[in-house]
Amino acid sequence: TLHALAALMNRKFGDVHDFSERFLGILAETDPKDGGNSPHRVAEALRHSGVIPEKDLPFDSTVATVEQYYSPKPMVKGHLRSAKEWLSQYAFGHEWLYPVGVNMDASLMKEALKRSPLGVSVYAWESQNGVYVKPQGASDNHWVMCYGWDEQGRWKIFDSYDQTRKILAEDYEFSFVKRYSIEANKRPIGGNWFTDLFMRLFSFRS
Q1: Residue 79: in which H helix or E strand, if any?
Q2: CA distance 182 to 151
Q3: The whole model's pTM is what?
Q4: What's the rounded Cα separation, in Å, for the pair 102 and 160?
Q5: Calpha distance 155→137 (Å, rounded)
């Protein structure tokens, strides 16, 4: 989810970001012992709570256990303030590309990819001749970013778990697909409606 957000912000605003996965995981109450989390719940945590830079809560050599990764709990107030500041500058949105339970629509995915990277559910991992496939009857158990397709119609995937790019079969069936949006909030941080109106009405050019 965060890689899709970073890619979208880079494309739309030219910004380069590396967001803290630990922060979002904690705020979304991800619990690996309880099967992980849902991409919808993670996206909602991002929409309501915001994000912070990776450098502020990194996944580095000091993190040796799952318990350390998903800490501190409760979250440090300074990090929460930083995330709220991000929310004052940006509005994040997300939605399912098609209703859950409906068969995937490749043409709809390709059209959506013109506007946003997609979050997609996959079965991790089984390959045939270097192309990843979903075995018959297998259930999705991993969330990755889809960013396009190749000349053969095979899906291009970035997997943040091992920081690799993968190619999925053209007929790969994604059970869940999300698209994302990001809009810049033009109101100055700490401003109010009167300041905003004044700036709009009395803008001067040098």
Answers
A1: helix 77-89
A2: 29
A3: 0.84
A4: 26
A5: 20
Task: Name which of 39, 151, 142, 37 is nearest 95 in CA terms.
Answer: 39
Exposed/middle/buried for 38, CB within 10 Å: 0-12, 13-18, 19+?
middle
Q: How far apart are CA 78 and CA 83, in angstroms?
A: 9
Q: What is the pLDDT of residues 169-202, one digit of tens each?
A: 999 999 999 999 999 985 444 444 334 443 344 4
Whole-angstrom distance, CA of residue 98 vs CA of residue 131:
25
Q: Is 167 helix (H, G, I), strand (E, B) or coil?
A: strand
Percentage of residues in the chain having pLDDT higher than 90:
80
CA distance 149 to 36: 28
The pLDDT tens digits for 101-110 are 777 889 999 9
Taking alpha carbons only, the member of 65, 72, 64, 67 closest to residue 20 is: 72
pLDDT at 31: 87
Question: Which two three-digit tokens encode residue 180?
Answer: 């994302």
So what's the pLDDT on residue 100?
74
CA–CA distance, 56 with 135 (Å, rounded to integer): 40
Residue 117 and residue 146 in contact, taking contact as beta carbons nearer than 8 Å: yes
DSSP string, 89-100: HEEEEEEESS-T
